């Protein structure tokens, strides 16, 4: 089908710009709605009451997307640590301060440089999961880039395997104090675009499945950060499967568009648009996961939610009751045979 009609390609590029920037930032808590993102990126319009930082963050992320596309299509230019640091500096714009999770102190985020303090994440079970230490990070990043250049030349891996394995190894290092998830998704698309694949969007309404695939890789590769940073193909298979599915769906959609079978690509689903255009309500991490599961399956049971979220059925029912009381969700019908309806947009 190549080359695609110029007008069709421009439309695809514009659609992807809005959808990718919206979803990748929304995954990290950006408060702009899909409509606000579209107005901002297409017309420079800052209509709405979102924090100005969120508008700046969205525009900066789009600059990072353009830098990535230029680098990916330059066959004379190889991937480097300097470029990854440049991407981090670009999307975060300037140094800033964050408040600790306990709220007892503020610390400075230095953009474009590797972390100077340990970073970690708390799992749904309450366990602390550590990324690479600041001392390990420079050597692990050097290993990652050397491995990638070698594999790019050898071509023993499929394009999707290379992209997914790079994503997982990078995430286990978590080299920066902020912006790591957004950089990982930019670099997945760097690898896809460099190899003539259409770029992909990991949608915010598929957040649970995306994070679950990463967690499954963590289970397979173990808790030691350096082991994760050198994860094998087998240990990264859950993320490979996830990204393979997203790529396949995108390829099918692009072919349908090129053949005139559909009129547009819509990376942000109708559910995403309906939910994000409503008033924002702040919820807990577990409640956010519950709501996203309801979006995918309105008839999901408390037992099924318990297995997915990793908390007891009693806790699930308690969270559902709180969401109902705040009129964020609504139950239609009885406990048996009924369904859930999302009423308001939420954010963590």
Q: What does the secondary structure layout of this molecule look like, with pairings?
A:
Layout (H helix, E strand, L loop, with lengths): L5 H21 L7 H10 L8 H22 L7 H12 L3 E4 L6 E4 L10 E3 L5 E3 L6 H18 L4 H15 L6 H15 L12 H15 L3 H5 L7 H22 L11 H7 L3 E3 L2 H12 L5 H8 L3 H13 L3 E4 L6 E4 L2 E3 L1
Parallel strand pairs: 5-8
Antiparallel strand pairs: 1-2, 3-4, 6-7
Task: Write structural notes for this entry.
By secondary structure, this protein is mainly alpha-helical. The protein folds into two domains: 265 residues, Fic-like fold; 70 residues, Arc Repressor Mutant, subunit A (Orthogonal Bundle), CATH 1.10.10.10. 56% of the residues lie in helices and 8% in strands. It has 14 helices and eight strands. The strands form four sheets. Strands 1-2 form a two-stranded antiparallel ribbon. A hairpin with a 6-residue loop joins strand 1 and strand 2. Helix 1 packs across helix 3 and helix 3 runs parallel beside helix 7. The longest helix is centred in the first third of the chain and has 22 residues. It is globular and about 60 Å long. About 3% of the residues have low confidence.
- Strand arrangement within the widest β-sheet reads 1-2
> What is Rg?
20 Å
The first-level CATH class of the largest domain is given as Mainly Alpha
Distance between the termini: 42 Å
Architecture per CATH nomenclature, i.e. the level-2 architecture of the largest domain: Orthogonal Bundle
Count of beta strands:
8
- Determine the mean pLDDT: 90
Residues in β-strands, percent: 5-15%
Task: Provide the number of structural domains.
Answer: 2
Element order: H for helix, E for strand:
HHHHEEEEHHHHHHHEHHHEEE
């Amino acid at each position: 089908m190549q080359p695609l009609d110029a007008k069709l390609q421009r439309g695809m590029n514009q659609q992807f710009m809005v959808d990718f920037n919206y979803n990748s930032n929304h995954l990290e808590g950006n408060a702009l709605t899909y409509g606000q993102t579209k107005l901002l990126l297409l017309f420079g319009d800052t209509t709405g009451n979102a924090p100005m930082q969120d508008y700046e963050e969205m525009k900066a992320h789009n600059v990072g997307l353009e830098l990535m596309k230029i680098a990916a299509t330059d066959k004379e230019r190889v991937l480097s640590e300097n470029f990854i640091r440049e991407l981090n500096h670009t999307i975060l714009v300037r140094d800033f301060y964050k408040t600790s999770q306990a709220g007892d102190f503020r610390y400075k985020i230095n953009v474009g440089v590797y972390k100077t303090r340990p970073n970690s994440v708390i799992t749904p079970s309450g366990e602390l999961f550590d990324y690479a230490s600041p001392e390990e990070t420079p050597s692990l990043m050097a290993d990652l880039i050397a491995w990638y250049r070698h594999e790019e030349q050898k071509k023993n891996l499929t394009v999707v395997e290379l992209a997914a394995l790079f994503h997982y190894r990078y995430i286990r290092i978590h080299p920066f104090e902020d912006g790591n998830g957004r950089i990982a998704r930019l670099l997945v698309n760097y690898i896809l675009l460099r190899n003539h694949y259409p770029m992909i969007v990991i949608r915010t309404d598929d957040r649970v499945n995306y994070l679950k695939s990463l967690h499954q890789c963590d289970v397979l590769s173990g808790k030691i950060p350096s082991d994760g940073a050198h994860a094998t193909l087998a240990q990264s298979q859950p993320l490979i499967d996830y990204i393979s599915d997203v790529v396949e769906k995108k390829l099918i959609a692009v072919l349908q568009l090129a053949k005139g079978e559909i009129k547009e690509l819509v990376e942000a689903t109708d559910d995403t648009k309906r939910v994000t255009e409503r008033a924002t309500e702040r919820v807990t991490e577990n409640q956010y996961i519950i709501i996203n599961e309801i979006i995918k399956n309105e008839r999901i049971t408390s037992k099924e939610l318990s297995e997915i979220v990793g908390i007891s059925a009693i806790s699930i029912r308690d969270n559902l009751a709180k969401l109902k009381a705040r009129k964020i969700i609504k139950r239609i019908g009885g406990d048996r045979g009924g369904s859930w309806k999302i009423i308001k947009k939420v954010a963590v």
